[in-house]
Write a structure and sequence with these properties.
By secondary structure, the chain is mainly α. It folds into 2 domains: about 120 residues, no CATH class; about 130 residues, no CATH class. The protein is about 75% helix and about 0% strand. The chain has 11 helices and no strands. Helix 1 runs antiparallel to helix 2, helix 2 packs parallel to helix 5 and helix 7 runs antiparallel to helix 8.
Length: about 270
């Protein structure tokens, strides 16, 4: 019992530091987002903060170095690639992301204070989702376990899959003749949202990496929460709504033949 309490208290200062970092980061992001009237900046802040926190845990925690830097490398690669991807996409868009523009219109005079609350909520989700990193970096077992090696392999496959999906969509949109058409090439031929699917697998990899560490079994909440975000809340539902509004019947036909999430062979017409 004493060792369990000691482990919990040893992680508390790291968690407090992460909380302060997230509050300040999201406050600054909110300030610049309101000044530029571009709330999509929060997506970059949210994505990038995972890499910063994972590196902080790797440097400050007391676990075995091989484990600390393995999880930090995984998270940093995913986090900073996603930031770069979002930045490239944002600089091409002349107007605010339709999702946030709709919120701004709906909230009216209360938009700024509501955006502040939303930004801070997203910052708190970072703390919760980062628990696999916190727990792994405090694990003092000197060698990588089998589950951690499996997690690294799963991460590599998922990272490549998500990167491919993003590039295929980017290349499709870069062709002017494809304007108004549905991306149905490569991985998008087998899933309407392959980027979200591989994103979720990445979070499964983080859980698998942490599962055999002390308290690690509880980090299964991270991939579960991410699955809810992607499939029920801010991911697929908003993307589908936007695609239906912009592509109409073409997207309806795409919905009818293509798996919504898990890649699978399309249905025949």
């Amino acid at each position: 019992m004493g060792s369990v309490l000691f482990s919990l208290f040893s992680m508390l200062p790291l968690l407090v530091c992460s909380f302060i970092f997230e509050f300040l980061l999201m406050s600054d992001t909110w300030y610049f987002a309101m000044k530029q009237k571009n709330a999509a900046l929060v997506d970059m802040a949210w994505s990038g903060s995972f890499g910063v926190i994972a590196i902080f845990y790797a440097l400050a925690a007391s676990g075995a170095p091989i484990r600390r830097f393995a999880i930090a490398a995984m998270v940093a690669c995913w986090s900073f690639r996603l930031v770069f991807h979002l930045w490239q996409r944002m600089k091409k868009e002349e107007e605010e992301d339709p999702r946030y523009a709709a919120m701004r219109t709906k909230w009216g005079d209360k938009a700024e204070q509501n955006f502040f609350a939303m930004f801070q909520f997203q910052g708190m989700t970072v703390l919760f989702l980062s628990l696999p990193f916190l727990i792994s970096t405090n694990d003092q077992w000197t060698q990588l376990r089998t589950n951690e090696l499996i997690a690294i392999a799963l991460f590599i496959v998922s990272f490549i899959g998500e990167s491919m999906a993003d590039k295929q969509l980017k290349d499709f949109k870069a062709i002017s003749a494809n304007r108004g058409n549905v991306c149905d090439v490569g991985l998008w031929h087998y899933s309407r949202h392959p980027n979200y699917f591989f994103e979720w697998l990445i979070w499964c990899a983080y859980y698998v990496f942490a599962m055999n560490s002390q308290f690690g079994i509880w980090t299964i909440s991270a991939p579960i929460l991410m699955l809810l975000f992607l499939t029920k809340m801010s991911g697929i539902p908003l993307a589908e709504k936007q695609s239906l509004a912009s592509k109409g019947e073409k997207y309806i036909a795409y919905q009818q033949r293509t798996s919504p999430f898990i890649p699978w062979f399309p249905k025949k017409a």
